């Protein structure tokens, strides 16, 4: 992400207010485009359907299909994205960029196959119409493609194209849904999904075209990235556990008193899901600021420190660079925490004022409020979590993800069953994740000299992995 971060930082550093405002808009879309796009579309579409008197069963089918597609597409792709991020970084560093485009096709192929199997099992005994199944399955696959492309476009430096891709997609979806639901008065949920699928598909193909323009060579080594899945299993676990933690609390609540079973297929809890859905919007400032602070200011000092080590600089210069890196990291973390705290107060104020107008009850607003507070800790945890990966502390990052994942599900179940409280699980899990990540970051920084100079092998011997041997055996590598 540093390429985009530096580009955006140039705009932020300009004195022109409009340039800084434009940079904020670009970074918002680049950092959280898919999430922002989905939440805006779901909110607008739900309100449009209700305004024209669509049956509640149709509205629930829309909410359930969208929610399941959104959540499970991220869970399936999460582990692969962390692995492929390392793979693309390594290939770019070693100037083997001809491997990048082929790996994109490989990741999309593998995740699509997994998604197809999961969807087939899920819908096998469902009484829902075939057209509905096909349209929601298409949305599910498109979202997996967009999550994957979003990782690859981080290597692009033309953030305006990324911005345009998301804006065009949301505009097309919004127009088509409005046309079908409001203008044509077609209240069936299938028409809604047709409009949303088309918009998301346009975004996906635009992003794909930009990636292909940047990485032009396809050497057809589509599954070489799987070597990294075996080589760096912790990265895969990190991504999988993180997304399971992000949505695990919902899985627990779906089994509780607010459970709604839709068409003998979907199990959701709209009473809980809707306020949490809105609360997750408060994480966007952390993602935006991460791009233009940690990815720029901290990265510069990080690169300077390791550059001096690699170039054999005197010890005093290395120590000076290390102290500067620590100082900048501390300042940026404090700055991010302060800004996110301001966002928390703003969201709570707006939620109390605006959410009742969207039909939310006082109980749902309470869930929203405690979830927003919890997401303050989640934003801090995510930032530290990514910093740990900067230092290649995969083991520490995995422990952070594991603690967050287990706390998310276990504490939600405890709060729901014993105390009949909802939203507390998000708060406690994020708090625990933040505390664990802070302790591990402190340990990482205290042991950085040992890790850098003593923990690496003197002679690195590249070993053939089982996946690599298998790929060679079948001539697909």
Summarize the structure.
It contains 17 helices and two strands.
List the helices and strands and how they pair.
Layout: H1 2-13, H2 17-51, H3 56-93, H4 98-123, H5 130-152, H6 159-183, H7 189-214, H8 226-231, H9 233-253, E1 260-262, E2 266-268, H10 270-279, H11 284-310, H12 315-354, H13 362-390, H14 394-418, H15 424-446, H16 448-453, H17 466-473
Antiparallel strand pairs: 1-2
Helix pairs in contact: 1-2, 1-11, 2-3, 2-6, 2-11, 3-4, 3-5, 3-9, 4-5, 5-7, 6-7, 9-14, 10-13, 11-12, 11-13, 12-13, 13-14, 13-15, 14-15
Question: If you had to describe this structure to a student in words, what would you say it looks like?
Answer:
The chain is mainly α and 477 residues long. The chain has a domain of 231 residues. 80% of the residues lie in helices and 1% in strands. The protein has 17 helices and two strands. A two-stranded antiparallel sheet has the order 1-2. The two termini are 28 Å apart.
What would the keywords be for this entry?
2 strands; mainly alpha; disordered N terminus; 1% strand; 17 helices; two-stranded antiparallel sheet; 477 residues
